[in-house]
Structure to design on (1242 residues):
C-alpha cells in the first residue's frame, strides 16, 4: 500500500489495463473477517470480505482495485465476443435527453424506476437504464440506404435503475454496468442472423466466465416476431421462476412457460355438439361458498366435480380492441375463465391483450360487472365484460361456475352451448409436475437470476422514433431492431455464487484477478530471493502474480489467499528450499492437497496449468 | 458496415479493446462533407466530419466506433502512466449520495453546475462532477493506521457538469470522461512526492499524446501548502488568460500571476518617514470627476500626477477575521486601494481573504460606507470598512485619492502618514508588458484551455469528512490529500486543434485510430490480392490497418483518409503493380509527397516508420 513502490513499474509500457504483477504491500486489498450484517448472500459477503467492492450508499458500490481487475477481464471477454460477431463499440452519454424517451412513450410507461433529472434550464433528462432510444436516435441521423444495413452497435456503460429495494450487493444494485447492443436490419432473416449470432456469443461469454447458465427461450414461432432468450443462473434469491425439463432440456420462465395439454382442446362447434345431451345449467344455492376450496368442499358429494374459475381483471392500456370498450380507452375489464385447479398467468394475459398491465379488479368493480359479491362470477349471461377463456375451459363438460348472483352457482355449464369466449388462449400458470411441452416429461421448478437477455424488438422503437432507410426500390422503410444486454456486475456476483467454498472465492482462470499468489513464509533471505525470482520469471511468461510480501503471519496470508480466491498458491519456505532438491509447495485453490515441485520446474508447471485451465474455459484448448 | 463480415475475426482472441484491423465496409465511419453550423472550432468540425462523435443533445455526445478507438488509446496511455507511479484504479458509482456533498458544504457552494437528482425515496443524489467526497468517504472506512499511507487511487469515469452554455463540442460539454486521482498522506513530504510524480506523469501523458502543453504553476511556496499546476493548451477560445515569459519560460494564469515590482515597496514606518517633508493632504474640488480617466484629464496640469484607486468590495463568506465584522459573518465589505493605472485581481483578493467570492459593492453600499457617491472613495479617514492595500500603494508619495465626499478629492496623500492598511498584499492584475517575476523579461499574453490540473488540497476535505488514521504514537491524525484530474474528451479535441490541416486531422502515431489505411484503386483482381496480402502481413506485425474496400471513387476515399487522419496511406493500383519491380505508393499524412516502395519492402517500411513515430512520442526510442 505504499505509493512509491509502484514506481519501478515505469518500464512496463504496454500493460494497458493493469500491472501484470503486484506486490501485496503496493496494492490495496482491504480484506475483512466479517461482512456487514446487510450482506446476506455468498457473493455479497465474499465481495465485501475479499475487498472487491465497497458500498457508497444503498444500491451504490465502488469496485476496488482487486475487484476492478476481475471486472476488466469480464469486459474484455465481452468485447472480444461482441467484436467477433461484428458488433461495433460506441460510447454515448450516460445522461440522455428526456425528449427521446417521450418519443417512445417510455418517459411515462417506465414508472419510478427511471431516474429523471431536470437541468438548470429545467429541461428533462434521464440517467440511462437502457438505450433503445439513444441508439435509435443516433442511427436515425446516419441511415440513408439499405446499404448501411445491417448495423450492430454496442456499449459497455453505466446504467441506473432506481430499484425500490436494492439488495444482495451488486446482484440488485441501482447503478451498474451493462453491455447493451442494438442491431438494425432490412429483413427478418438478417435480424434472425444477428439474433442467433448474439445467442451464440452469449453462450461463449458465460462459458468463458465459468458460468452454468440456463438459456430460457420465449419464441413467438414466426421469424421476425418477438423472440427472446433470457440467460439465467440458478439462485435461491432469484426473482424469476423457471420451469425445467429433466429430459429434453426445455427451460422457460414461468411468465411465459407452456406445457403439454392435460386436456383435449375443442372448438366452439365441437364443444357445442359434445354438450348436446347434457342437462341444462341449473342453479345451486351455495351460501357463503366463495373460494375454490369452499367449492370443492361443498361439491364433494358429486362425482368428480369440475369447476370453471372466473376472475375479473382490470386491463390498463389494452392494445387490442375489446367489446364494450372505446377504441384507445386507457382502462377496461375482462372476465377470465380457467379450469378450477389452475391459476391465471397475468404476464400471458397482459401479452394477449397487449396491455400495459393487468390487475385483479377491485371489489366494487366486480360487483358492478357481475351483479354479485366477489366469489360468484361466471361466464353464463355475463355481458358487462368480454370473456377470455383459457384453453382448458373448452375441454370441460358439465362444469360448475358462479352464477353472477350472491350465494348461487350453476351446475352443468358447457362451453359452446351456455357461453362463448371473445378469445381462447393459453393463460395458465405452468407448475412443477406439469408435462414438458416438448417431450412430455414432468417439469420441475427453480429460482433463477437473469444475467443477460436477447430480444427481437421488430419495429417497436424504430417506428416510434421514425427511423427510416430507403430500400433498393427507393422506398422509405422502417428497419427491424434487436437488443441484447448483459449485466456485468451481477455476472461477476453469479460467478462467485457458483464458485466458492467456506474459505472464500474460487476464481475461474479467465476472471481471476491474479493467476498465482506467492507466499514466502518470511519475506527475507533465501526465501525472498526465491520468491522474487519466481515472480520475475512468471511475469516474463505473462502470468499474473500477486506476491504477498506482508509481514503478517503465514496463517493470515493463507486465509487471505483463499478468501480472494487466486487459482494457484505457491508457498516458499526455508525447509523446502533446504532440501537436496529444493522444492516449493504449490496448491490449486480448487483442490484439497498441495504438492511439492522442484524450484526449477515451478514456473513451467504453473504456466502450463493456467494455460490449460484458461483454454478449457475459452474453448480453444 | 455489413454486420456479418466481422465474423471471420472470431479467431482473434486476445484483441481486447478492438479489432487490430478492419475493412471499411465492416466498420461505421459516417463522414460528412460539411459540419453542422453550430460547430465553430476546428476540433469540433473535424470530429463531426470524420465521424468520431455525434451530438445527442446540447453538450451531450456519443463517441462513434472510430472515435472510440482514439479514446481508448488515450485511456491506455493515462492508465499506464498512473499505474507506473503506483496509483491504483478503482470504479466508484457515477451517481453518489448528496449527503457526502453536504458533509463538505459543496452541496451548497457548487451552485447550479452540480446536477442534483432526487430518487424515488426523495433522497438527494449528485451526478458526480468530481470525486473528492466519494474517495474520501471510501478511504475513511479503510484507513486505520499510518501503515496504510500513502495511498493513491484513481478512476477514469463519467462526469457531469451542468454547464450553462456548453459549446465547442467535447471541449466544453456537459458530460465528459475524466481521469481523477486522489492521494492520501501522513506527511508534507509524502504529499509532495506524489504531487511531483503526478506532475511528471502528466508531462509524459501529454507528450505521448503529441500535445504541446503549458504547465502553469501556482505554488504557495510552503511545502504542504496549496500548490497547484494547470496543464494548458493555447487556444483562441480558451477561457483562461495566461502570462508567459519568452525568456525563462515562466507561465501563470492571470488569476494568480505576479510580476517583478515596478515600484519600491515600503513598510509603514519607511513610508511615514518618507512623507515627513510632504505638504499635508488638501481638498480639491473635482465636480463630476468620478473615473480614473476623468482624474487624469482633470489633473493633467499637475506634473506627473499619482493616483490611488479605491474600490469597495463585498466579501462573501470571508475566511479570516476583518475589523468591524462579526467573526463568522457571511458577508462584509473592504476598501481596496491600488495604484491608479492598475486593476484589482479579484481571484487574488478572494484568496487573500479566504472568501467564497468578492464582488464590487453596489452603489448604496458604497454610499453608506464612504458617505459619497461612487467615484469619490479614498482611504483617508475611512472607518466603515478595513483598508486592504496593494503593494504598489506603499511606494506612492503625494498621491491623489477620493475624499469620501461628493465632488471632492485629496492631494498629497501619503501611506503611513495619512492612512494605513489592515493588510498589504499583491493584488494587481498582471498584464502583457509587465516584467517577469523570475527574470524581468517582458511578459506576453495568450488564451489557454485547461486539460489537466494537479492540486495539493491539504486537509480541506479529509478534515471536513472526518478522515482519520493513527500515527506511530497511536494518535488520531487527519491525512493530507492531493487531487489530480485530466479531461479525456477535451484532450483529444486539443490534439486535433494542434494537429490538423485544411484536409482534416493528422493523428500522432500514439492516438491514431489506425496506423495505416490501404486504398486499392479498385478492390478486385491482382490489386485486391495485393491489398489483402499487405493487410494480413501488417496485422501479423501488430500494425493497425483500415482497408478501404468500398466501391467509391478513389478521390472520395483519398479525401476520407485525409479527413480521418490516418498517419500512413498506401495506394495500390494496377499500373504500379505492373512495373517490372511492382510498387505501392506510400504517403505520410503529415508530408506532402508520396513515394513508391517495392511490394516486398512495404510492410517493413510501414512498421519501422510507425514504431519510430510512436517511440519518439513515447520517449522510449
Amino acid at each position: 500500500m505504499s505509493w512509491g513502490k509502484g514506481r519501478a513499474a515505469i518500464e512496463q509500457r504496454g500493460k494497458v489495463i493493469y500491472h501484470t504483477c503486484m506486490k501485496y504491500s503496493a496494492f490495496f486489498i482491504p480484506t475483512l473477517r466479517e461482512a456487514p450484517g446487510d450482506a446476506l448472500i455468498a457473493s455479497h459477503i465474499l465481495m465485501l470480505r475479499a475487498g472487491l467492492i465497497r458500498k457508497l450508499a444503498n444500491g451504490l458500490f465502488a469496485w476496488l482495485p482487486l475487484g476492478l481487475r476481475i471486472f476488466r477481464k469480464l469486459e474484455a471477454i465481452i468485447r472480444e465476443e461482441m467484436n467477433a460477431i461484428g458488433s461495433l463499440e460506441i460510447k454515448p452519454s450516460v445522461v440522455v435527453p428526456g425528449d427521446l424517451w417521450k418519443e417512445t412513450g417510455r418517459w411515462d410507461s417506465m414508472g419510478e424506476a427511471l431516474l429523471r433529472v431536470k437541468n438548470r434550464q429545467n429541461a428533462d433528462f434521464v440517467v440511462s437504464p437502457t438505450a433503445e432510444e439513444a441508439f435509435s436516435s443516433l442511427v436515425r441521423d446516419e441511415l440513408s440506404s439499405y446499404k448501411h444495413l445491417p448495423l450492430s452497435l454496442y456499449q459497455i456503460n453505466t446504467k441506473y435503475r432506481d430499484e425500490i429495494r436494492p439488495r444482495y450487493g451488486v446482484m440488485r444494485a441501482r447503478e451498474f454496468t451493462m453491455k447493451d447492443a442494438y442491431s438494425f436490419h432490412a429483413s427478418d432473416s438478417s435480424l434472425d442472423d444477428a439474433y442467433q449470432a448474439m445467442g451464440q456469443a452469449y453462450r461463449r461469454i458465460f462459458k468463458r466466465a465459468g458460468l452454468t447458465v440456463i438459456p430460457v427461450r420465449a419464441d413467438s414461432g414466426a421469424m421476425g416476431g418477438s423472440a427472446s432468450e433470457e440467460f439465467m443462473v440458478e439462485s435461491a434469491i432469484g426473482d424469476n421462476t423457471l420451469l425445467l425439463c429433466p429430459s429434453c432440456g426445455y427451460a422457460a420462465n414461468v411468465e411465459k412457460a407452456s406445457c403439454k395439454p392435460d386436456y383435449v382442446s375443442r372448438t366452439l362447434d365441437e364443444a357445442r355438439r359434445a354438450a348436446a345431451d347434457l342437462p341444462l345449467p341449473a342453479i345451486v344455492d351455495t351460501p357463503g361458498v366463495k373460494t375454490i376450496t369452499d367449492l370443492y368442499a361443498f361439491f364433494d358429494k358429486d362425482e368428480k366435480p369440475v369447476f370453471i374459475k372466473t376472475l375479473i381483471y382490470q386491463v390498463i392500456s389494452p392494445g387490442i380492441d375489446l367489446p364494450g370498450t372505446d377504441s384507445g380507452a386507457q382502462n377496461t375489464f375482462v372476465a377470465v375463465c380457467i379450469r378450477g385447479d389452475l391459476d391465471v398467468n397475468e404476464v400471458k394475459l397482459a401479452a394477449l391483450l397487449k396491455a400495459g398491465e393487468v390487475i385483479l379488479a377491485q371489489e366494487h368493480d366486480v360487483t358492478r360487472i357481475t351483479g354479485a359479491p366477489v366469489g360468484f362470477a361466471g361466464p353464463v349471461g355475463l355481458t358487462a365484460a368480454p370473456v377470455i377463456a383459457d384453453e382448458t375451459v373448452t375441454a370441460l363438460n358439465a362444469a360448475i361456475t358462479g352464477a353472477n348472483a350472491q350465494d348461487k352457482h350453476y351446475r352443468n355449464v358447457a362451453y359452446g352451448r351456455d357461453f362463448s369466449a371473445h378469445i381462447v388462449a393459453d393463460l395458465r400458470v405452468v407448475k412443477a409436475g406439469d408435462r414438458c411441452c416438448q417431450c412430455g416429461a414432468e417439469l420441475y421448478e427453480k429460482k433463477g437470476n437473469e444475467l443477460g437477455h436477447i430480444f427481437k424488438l421488430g419495429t417497436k422503437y424504430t417506428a416510434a422514433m421514425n427511423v427510416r432507410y430507403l430500400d433498393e426500390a427507393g422506398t422509405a422503410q422502417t428497419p427491424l431492431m434487436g437488443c441484447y444486454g448483459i449485466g456485468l456486475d451481477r455476472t461477476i456476483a453469479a460467478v462467485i455464487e457458483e464458485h466458492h467454498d467456506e474459505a472464500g472465492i474460487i476464481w475461474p482462470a479467465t476472471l481471476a484477478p491474479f493467476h498465482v499468489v506467492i507466499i514466502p513464509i518470511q519475506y527475507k533471505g533465501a526465501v525472498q530471493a526465491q520468491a522474487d525470482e519466481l515472480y520475475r520469471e512468471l511475469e516474463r511468461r505473462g502470468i499474473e502474480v500477486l506476491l504477498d510480501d506482508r509481514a503478517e503471519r503465514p496463517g493470515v496470508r493463507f486465509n487471505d489467499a483463499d478468501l480472494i480466491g487466486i487459482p494457484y498458491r505457491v508457498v516458499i519456505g526455508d525447509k523446502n528450499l533446504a532440501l537436496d532438491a529444493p522444492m516449493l509447495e504449490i496448491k490449486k485453490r480448487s483442490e484439497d492437497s498441495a504438492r511439492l515441485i522442484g524450484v526449477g520446474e515451478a514456473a513451467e508447471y504453473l504456466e502450463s496449468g493456467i494455460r490449460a485451465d484458461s483454454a478449457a474455459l475459452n474453448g480453444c484448448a
